[in-house]
Amino acid sequence: MTFVQLIECRTSRLDEMNRLMDDWVQRTKGTRTATHAVVGTDRSDASHVVEVVEFPSYEEAMRNSNLPETDRIFRGLVALCDEMPTFTDLDVVRDERLSEHVVRGFFEALCAAGELPPLNDLLDEDIHSHDPMNPLDTIGLDNTRAEFRMWRGAFDFAFTIEDVFAQGDRACARWTWRATHRGDFLGIAPTGRRVGMTGMTLFRFGADGKIAELWWQHDQLGLMQQLGALDELEQ
C-alpha cells in the first residue's frame, strides 16, 4: 500500500531549506526509496512550509528513514525551522494519477506551434520509444525529442484523441493523425499532400508520474502509399 508522509514546519530560510533538499537528493541517489516529493508554502503564511513525500509502502519509508543521509538532513531541517517540524503518516486509500491528463498533454505538446517544448515535465530522462518505423528503439529524452522534431519538420499535423484508457501504470490512447507533407520524410521530398493515419500509443508511467516508455502502432504502409512512395511498386 502506498504510504505518504506529511511534514510541516515554519521557517524564514526557505532558500537554505531548498539547498538542503537538493543536497539530500544528490547524496541519496540510488538508495532513497521516496518516489515523489512536493514542497509548498501556505499562501496566507509564507513561513508555513508543507512537504508531501510518497513511498511505495510504509516499510520502504522506514528503510528510507534509516539512511544515514536522512538523519543528517533531519538535523539540518530542525536547525532551519523556527519550531520542531511535525510529521503525519498516511496510508493511501485512493490514488488518482491523472494519467489521462498527461496523455492528452503529451499529444498537445507534440502539435504545439513554434519550437518543440522541452517535454522534460512529461517524459522520463531515460524514456524508451518503440516505433515500428524504426529498426531500433529510441532511447533517452534527447533522442526521443530529435525523433519528434523529425516528424514536425516533415509534416504540419494534428492529433484527434478518440479514446484514452488507463489502469495502474499504463495508459492507451487511440488517435487519428491528419497532416500536410511540408518537408523531407525518409527521403521523400515534400509533396504538399494531405495525409492521415489512425493508430494507438501505449504508455508506461514511472514512479514519478512521467512517461517512461512508449509503444506506437500506426498505419505506416498507408502513409507511404498516400505519399506516393509505393506508386512504382503498384504499376
TrEMBL record:
SUPFAM superfamilies: NTF2-like. It comes from the Bacteria. Pfam families: SnoaL. One of its GO terms (biological process) is polyketide metabolic process. This is Putative ester cyclase. It comes from Streptomyces echinatus.
